Amino acid sequence: MNTISRRQFLQKSAQVTLGLLGTAGASGIYSHWIEPYWLEIKYVDITLPRLPPAFDRFRIVHFSDLHQGVYSKPQALTELAQQIQHVNPDLICFTGDLLDHSADYISEAVALCSQLRAPFGQYAVLGNHDAFGTRKVVTKGLTQSGFHVLHNEHIVLTQGTDKLYIAGIDDPWVGKADIAQALLHIPEEACTILLAHEPDFADDFCKLPIDLQLSGHSHGGQVRLPFVGALYTPPHGSKYSSGLYQLPNSQLQVYTTRGIGVTRMPVRFNCRPELTVITLHS
């Protein structure tokens, strides 16, 4: 049996330690300086059996969780605006958390949103961060930038005689969400898309006449380790944390985007920021 001297053992141990430290250092640099600003454009096809024929191949840009604040970079906002307009969406939907904490950054967020236009309009709902003291500022900023903020209400999109309903509720977790009010007077047989910040409330909505729920909030976990998954997901954002879900025994589908910004920790790992481009099919 081969043996190694104490000196050789210490040398190999030092090499392994340096290698691990180097890997950790590189991962730290990547997760802090690179991935949080490496935007992924994710194209998703969603079939809605009740979608009217006139809205077949209707394109929606869905983004969420901008969390504009101290960790935001102006060039990242510029890229986001360019990418949204480049895909020529029919409709733009934002599902909450425009600001991280401070209202001091509202002008930067408004500057971004003011660049975004789609033929069928721009619609938004508030998230839990928006409801913590910046509600009026965020609502005013989004409105000034051309977004219609849906507070427990809906709008109707029309093409010929076909109609598609877009409903939105106040933040279900810390706001004053009223799903009944949002759906009031929508025909039971109509195709309806719901904007709601926290995805896991879909379990409360699955028996209602809603076809698709668009959500954010979870950030996809923000840090996802191979073979482990997300290290942390926030309350009401863990069951449907990222991607498309079909709820059992329901017509309701949920799409949760990983969001644009970061919160708590200024890092992302194996969980790039996401701009979602949804094409609807009947």
Written overview of the protein:
- One of its GO terms (biological process) is lipid A biosynthetic process.
- One of its GO terms (cellular component) is membrane.
- Keywords: Hydrolase, Metal-binding.
- The protein has 282 residues and is an alpha/beta fold.
- It has one domain (38-281): Purple Acid Phosphatase, chain A, domain 2, CATH 3.60.21.10.
- It has seven helices and 14 strands.
- A six-stranded mixed β-sheet has the order 1-14-2-3-4-5, covered by helices on one side.
- Strand 8 (192-195), helix 7 and strand 9 form a beta-alpha-beta unit.
- Helix 2 (74-86) packs parallel to helix 3 (106-113) and helix 3 (106-113) runs parallel beside helix 5.
- The longest helix has 29 residues, at 6-34.
- The termini are far apart.
- Mean pLDDT is 91; it is low at 13-25.
